[in-house]
Design goal:
By secondary structure, the chain is an alpha+beta fold. It has 20 helices and 16 strands. The protein has a domain of 174 residues: Serine Threonine Protein Phosphatase 5, Tetratricopeptide repeat, CATH 1.25.40.
Length: 589
């Protein structure tokens, strides 16, 4: 049967009568056949799925031991404090994921029938690129579906989600059982194979035919033709480097402790090998940009971006937002006209080592509880506003203790901190939210950072080959962590003696790598999922700090109420009720 596709502008819809809602104008009603001669219409199916890619900053950190929020009705706060059920599930990605797969499967079923351009070479290249994007995006959505919904059934099976790789019509059978976790991972990797086959590593204009990648030369040797399709105008679309990054994410997930199972044969070395390809592409273990850890506040770098270029730290990002102060309005302290939404915990602050590289509880650290922020990892000052720290366009000192009497003080008002800390990461310090002199700036939201890929290699390589093992590569987990810590300014005066201590002990190196991941990717929506795939304690009490009688004292801020089965998120209860072949994960009935 013909499937009618309604392409209606949402703004226009808001002004239509009830009759118009159900009787669209004829020119707005198109069938799938019309995509063959209307490439823009056909590409619209693909573009729709770009718009629903999960946000990089989803604030799930506030459901972990890293942060809380001062908005007591927040969904993630409810998740962390006992209200998470299969019916109330802010983690649910089911409808978004399968809705996007519907579009992508329709596109893949029909793209080769579309007249993409009048010139045959251009048409072939467009079809190749767009199919590559579609395969890559299908893998992306499957990755998030598996990450968010895979788990153990009541019978102990390790299950993924239903595999849907063909276009479904209204007459299709939607009562499909969940595939095995292994089969889901394999499908993701197969789609990424296709994406890499069809796509260039990155999109760049070329100046001579020798620069055309080998796989495209059988289609064209024309410089203009190649650049028209695979050049700068296509930047920030899915490419082969992004495909490799999702391969690294997928294989890391598959090798993690939470998914170790007799039916799962994916190994740590697979994740290490994929991440190593990305590191080699970047230039090696020491190729991370010196300012990559402050990517969000590299002001001149951000303001100078053009032609879809990425900063050196970024593999993939969203488009530039100009005249923007959203993050600052949400998260700056109230004295700087922000709402202080995310409050880092003392737990996270304690995870930052000293500048000599030692954890603060190590006998050689030199940590002093009277001056707890002195001689600490410089990332602490970059990422977190602590008592007395300078912040904002005028480097204003922020005082957070209850005795300070400021609007920024602990629990002073609804927008004040609950922990004694405010989040500084993600914010540009040259944005001014004062309503009398507002100054917003340009920003981008990342999707994949190179540092994440380096940390993926470090974790996987340590598990596969030990701290100093290299497999078939020129660098080890130790080499990567040393590079990341040196960039942060750690261990520069003592050759990072603590890292040297860890490199002879795989277990100690594991803890160090996990801690570096916690710090480097803090407030970037990783901790919630990392704790689960590592099978670590989800119920660490979220602590804060106050200055009482001249002494800093830890305070309890929020207790967590996770159950053991919550290592895995649920299948939406609505799906369980509709389809009897879909099994729920253990514990969520």
């Amino acid at each position: 049967m013909k499937i009618k596709i309604f392409i209606l502008g949402l703004c226009a819809l808001s002004f239509m009568s009830c009759k118009k809602w159900f009787e669209p104008d004829p020119e707005n009603l198109k069938s799938e056949d019309q995509m063959y001669n209307d490439p823009r219409f056909a590409q619209g199916f693909l573009n729709t799925t770009y718009r629903t890619i999960p946000a990089y900053y989803n604030n799930s950190d506030i459901a972990t031991d890293d942060a809380v929020t001062n908005v007591r009705t927040n969904d993630y706060l409810q998740v962390a404090t006992g209200s998470w059920t299969a019916s109330y599930n802010p983690i649910n990605f089911w409808n978004t994921g399968y809705g996007s797969l519907l579009y992508l499967n329709l596109f893949l079923a029909n793209s080769e029938k579309v007249s993409w351009a009048n010139e045959p070479e251009v048409a072939k290249l467009f079809n190749m690129r767009l199919r590559g994007e579609a395969f890559g995006l299908r893998a992306l959505y499957m990755y998030y579906l598996v990450r968010n919904h895979a788990g153990l059934s009541n019978g102990g099976e390790l299950l993924g989600v239903p595999l849907v790789t063909a276009y479904q019509t209204s007459s299709s059978d939607f009562n499909i059982p969940r595939a095995s976790f292994k089969d889901c991972i394999q499908q993701i990797l197969t789609d990424l194979d296709s994406a890499e086959f069809y796509l260039p590593m990155e999109y760049n204009d070329i100046s001579n035919a020798n620069q055309i990648p080998e796989k495209f030369r059988s289609i064209t040797t024309n410089v203009g033709t190649y650049s028209r399709v695979m050049g700068t105008h296509s930047r920030q679309l899915f490419n082969a480097l992004i495909a490799k990054s999702f391969r690294a994410r997928t294989t890391l997930l598959a090798a993690s402790p939470a998914f170790q199972h007799a039916t799962n044969t994916f190994s740590w070395d697979a994740a290490a090998n994929v991440a190593a390809e990305i590191i080699n592409f970047k230039g090696g273990a020491n190729a991370l940009p010196a300012n990559g850890h402050t990517f969000y506040n590299n002001q001149g770098e951000i303001d100078g971006l053009s032609q879809g270029l990425n900063p050196p730290e970024i593999i993939w990002r969203e488009n530039i937002q100009t005249n923007n102060g959203d993050q600052e309005a949400q998260n700056l302290p109230p004295s700087l006209f922000g709402n202080g939404f995310i409050n880092p915990t003392q737990n996270l602050v304690d995870a930052f080592p000293m500048t000599n590289g030692y954890p603060i509880n190590h006998p050689s650290s030199g940590f002093n509880a009277i001056t707890p922020y002195a001689n600490r990892d410089p990332r602490l000052t970059h990422y977190i506003v602590y008592n007395g720290a300078p912040v904002g366009i005028s480097n204003t000192a922020i005082f957070t203790t209850s005795e300070s009497g400021t609007v920024d003080a602990l629990n002073n008002r609804e927008t004040s901190t609950r922990t004694g800390y405010y989040m500084k990461k993600r914010l540009r310090m040259d944005v001014n939210r004062n309503p009398n002199s507002t100054l917003n700036k340009s920003r981008y939201l990342p999707r994949i950072r190179y540092t994440e890929m380096y940390l993926t290699y470090a974790e996987a390589a340590n598990e596969a080959w030990g701290p100093t093992g290299t497999g078939q590569h020129a660098f080890s987990a130790y080499d990567i962590i040393k590079s990341i810590r040196r960039r942060a300014g750690i261990g520069l005066t003592n050759n990072d003696a603590y890292l040297e201590e860890c490199k002879i002990d795989k277990d100690k190196m594991r803890e160090l790598i996990r801690n570096e991941r916690r710090l480097e990717l803090s407030f970037e929506s990783f901790r919630f999922w990392d704790l689960r795939r590592w099978k670590l304690n989800l119920n660490e009490t979220a602590n804060g700090i106050d200055l009482i009688g001249g002494n800093y004292s830890q305070i309890t801020v929020e207790t967590r109420s996770y159950q053991d089965y919550m290592l895995y998120a649920p299948i939406p209860q609505s799906e369980i009720l509709k389809y009897n072949l879909i099994q729920q994960n253990q514990g969520w009935e």
